Amino acid sequence: MSLQSKLKIESVGLFAAAVFYAVVGVISFVVLASDIGLIHIGIIGVFSLITAYGLLRRRIWAVWFVAVLFLLATTVSAYTLYLLAGRDPALDVSMILYFALTWIFTGYVAVKRKALET
């Protein structure tokens, strides 16, 4: 019996998107704990965890949270890269990865949004 059937995962892509948003939510709270002044990161964390839950439960409203996170993540990652480019290579790579994965998973969820209407 495969892991996919044990967890009753109908769409591996939507599950991967949910895992991505859950990981982003947890990382956001770790960053927020290190500097409470980064409240915008906490907002991204809350929205990411809500989105992960919505995708796992296959709720159609999760598409709206994905859209909001797309705008927030694109803005925050692009602004961070613009402001701090070259100062910390690890931050640069993580922001580029976050930017790219946000675009990929937003596109995927947008294409598969009909699967959330069940």
Question: Secondary-structure map with pairings?
Answer:
Layout: H1 3-6, H2 12-34, H3 39-56, H4 62-84, H5 89-111
Helix pairs in contact: 2-3, 2-5, 3-4, 4-5
Keywords:
118 residues, mainly alpha, 5 helices, 77% helix
Please, could you describe this protein's structure?
The protein is mostly helical and 118 residues long. The chain has one domain (10-107). Helix content is 77%, strand content 0%. It contains five helices and no strands. The chain is globular. The two termini are 25 Å apart. The model has no long low-confidence stretch (mean pLDDT 89).
Q: From the helix content, strand content and strand pairing, which structural class follows?
A: mainly alpha
Number of strands: 0
Largest sheet: none
Rg on CA atoms, Å: 15 Å
Helical stretch count?
Answer: 5
Note the overall shape: globular
Mean pLDDT: 89
Secondary structure: helix percent:
over 70%
| Strand residues, percent | under 5%
Low-confidence stretches: none
Q: What is the straight-line distance between the termini?
A: 25 Å
Q: What are the secondary-structure elements, in order, as H or E?
A: HHHHH
* Number of domain modules: 1
